[in-house]
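Supplementary Methods S3. Input chains for the assembly prediction are listed below.
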Amino acid sequence: MRIGLDVMGGDDVPKIPLLGAKAFCAEYPDVHLVLYGQMDVMEAGLKELGPMPANTSMVHCPQVIGMDEHPAIAIKQKPDSTIAVGLADVRKGKLDAFASAGNTGAVTAGSVLILELLEGLHRPTIGGIYPNNGTYSLLIDCGANTDSKPEYLLEFAYIGQAYMKAVYGMAKPRVGLLNIGHEHTKGNNLTREAYKLLNDHKDHLNFVGNVEGWDINRQNADVFVCDGFTGNVLTKMIESYYEYLSATLPAGLDLEFLNFERVGGLPLLGVKGNVMIGHGSSTPFALQNMLRRTRELVESRLLQKLPGELSGLTNTAV
Amino acid sequence: MRIGLDVMGGDDVPKIPLLGAKAFCAEYPDVHLVLYGQMDVMEAGLKELGPMPANTSMVHCPQVIGMDEHPAIAIKQKPDSTIAVGLADVRKGKLDAFASAGNTGAVTAGSVLILELLEGLHRPTIGGIYPNNGTYSLLIDCGANTDSKPEYLLEFAYIGQAYMKAVYGMAKPRVGLLNIGHEHTKGNNLTREAYKLLNDHKDHLNFVGNVEGWDINRQNADVFVCDGFTGNVLTKMIESYYEYLSATLPAGLDLEFLNFERVGGLPLLGVKGNVMIGHGSSTPFALQNMLRRTRELVESRLLQKLPGELSGLTNTAV
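Predicted structure tokens for the full assembly:
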């Protein structure tokens, strides 16, 4: 397996990506990690941090996309950036996956432009992995899209269901529509229409109906379908509890189950390649976990399974 | 002060409202509490629970609006319901405030129809009180509106600012726009437009810009402005942490600061009267606290201050 890592993506580069990469490579000697970055920056970093394990190589990318650059413009204007080159190498089959803690919008735009969407999909989506009581839930979309349409939410449901089956081995993940009430008449214009679509696709989706904010911690679904705005705000709120409660509750308490650095990365789904996204504020531990999630994603063969898993999308006459 | 309570509103009536009312009345002998309900139901409840303190009276309302009835239709078809009669008594000046743990949509629709909106406003809004590290934040709107327009969010900002000044004595509450990134270009169609409006009203609003999901627990604003869909999902998610962590963390830990029954009620704001809303699943303790919040709302004189606080809305030439 060959995984590419954006060494220029994040708040403290190349140090944090290199530290995360070192830990990951030592853990998985069978994985080959390709570092994408400006050669002089990477070499200066390695001089300080010591050499990388043998299962790594480096690719020089002269350009870097900044955290605040306009995603689509930056991807087009910087074909020699770490993000553009890494994604192109996925497309060419040189990599099984690419991971970046850089500009999320640029990774998303680049994935659509360079890898292209899977057949039958309108949009990519970000899956928010939520570890909870020894199992996992998925909040999807977590921010790949700012404004969504009902048919996007239907696609997120199919993708999320396929993810939970492939990556976590769930036989029949429960798909819930995140909403403001359980009754099918409840919701905003988007969720009321999405409810109808999801309900019409019950032959292919294990749709359990509307779920509410408190149903996430109660684990009343495995896949929580929502628009990317709601999912983004929620995910960041959820992530903040580790910091908040660590400062509020008595010291010495084990709150590691709330620590989202243990997740590390969220998959960008719906494109013809494996892509993993991390927070700009990732620590080395978070970076290492982003790479672990990337490895799991490749191992799950979700990408190979998705065309079959999405067949209900186009085969359902409504 | 005279407060009206809907004794037919909630999942276990009249028992829970009556128990909450008894505790509240014993605590505040100077407040007169008026119970709205079907007389036979109230009398049967009091027979079981024992008599109410002296500072109460009862109003017979033959009709009841169910939790799942269509709000606007129910309010029009049931003028003798507890919600319609209670709100009419606020309008007539017989009550200083009305509180209900019944059908939230019906209370909202009834408040607009019977009490009417304050001048200059398009919509009512629900303020989500969030106790955090010894102080309070407000999430507004928490679900009075399913689909919002940018000008609604501007109004929520003015109302939220006025609430924090009047009820919590904040001199200059920080108003943040809940969004998916800090940069002013970030967001969905709604928040990008709302940002411009809020920014144009900086003479009247202490607008601190965009804030994200993790800024809520970090208290990077006092008022978090959002659409009612996002606010509703978030509030229920936040509320679920008490239950979730109580079951997950070691027993004996003091998690009362996460217990939203201590809030008990959320104000419905923007109408010409004081209205407080509680969860259908309220316990007697939550009901008692809903009445405490109602008393605070009346004491704060927010309603008398709001026309002045909203003057910037119409006086700002943009």
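Residues 52 and 311 of chain B are 43 Å apart (CA to CA). The interface with chain A takes residues 68, 133, 143, 146-147, 178-180, 183, 187-189, 191, 212-214, 216-218, 226, 228-230, 232-241, 243-245, 248-250, 253, 257 of chain B (CB under 8 Å).
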